[in-house]
Every structure is written in C-alpha cells, then in structure tokens.
C-alpha cells in the first residue's frame, strides 16, 4: 500500500531516488509494512542525502529502514564496479 501512495504523492515532482527506494521495498517481501516514522521522514531523507546517497550519515537518527536501503544501494553500486 505504501508503494502506491508514494507513487501518488510524488506523481508531480518525483525525487531522483524514489524508483530505487520502491524497487528496494518490492525486492524485500519481508518488509510487511512501512513504519509511520519512515513514511513521515522520507521527503526529508530525499532532500538531505542527495541523489547518490553520499550525504547519508548512519549515525544520525534515521529510521532503520533507511539504513537498510542505503546499504542495499551501496552493495548494488559496488557490484557494478569492475576490478582489473
């Protein structure tokens, strides 16, 4: 349900990371629901961490689902790096 609501809420001005966030939620069926604090802080999260998540600070008081998302994205990006 949260995925559909995020698509609706951001239908006019979509944060760059929205699609990656939604993919993360869809790929993790163990996430049964999104806590209210995560829902409430998502816009703030998108504005503070930047499009590439480089400004994310895991020592700040973000919901743990954001920690999981950033870790997931970092792992995905590292898998795309070729080592010589």
TrEMBL record:
Q: Sorted alphabetically, which PROSITE patterns does this protein's record hold?
A: DCUN1
| Highest taxon listed in the record's lineage | Eukaryota
The record's Gene3D superfamilies line, in alphabetical order, gives: Cullin, PONY binding domain
**A Pfam short name:** Cullin_binding
GO terms in the biological process aspect are: positive regulation of protein neddylation; protein neddylation
Q: Any stretches that span the bilayer, and where are they?
A: none
The molecular function GO annotations come to: cullin family protein binding; ubiquitin conjugating enzyme binding; ubiquitin-like protein binding
The DCUN1 domain extends over 1-74
Which GO cellular component term is one of those annotated? ubiquitin ligase complex
Q: What does this protein do?
A: Neddylation of cullins play an essential role in the regulation of SCF-type complexes activity.
Q: What is this protein called?
A: Defective in cullin neddylation protein
Source organism per UniProt? Pinctada imbricata
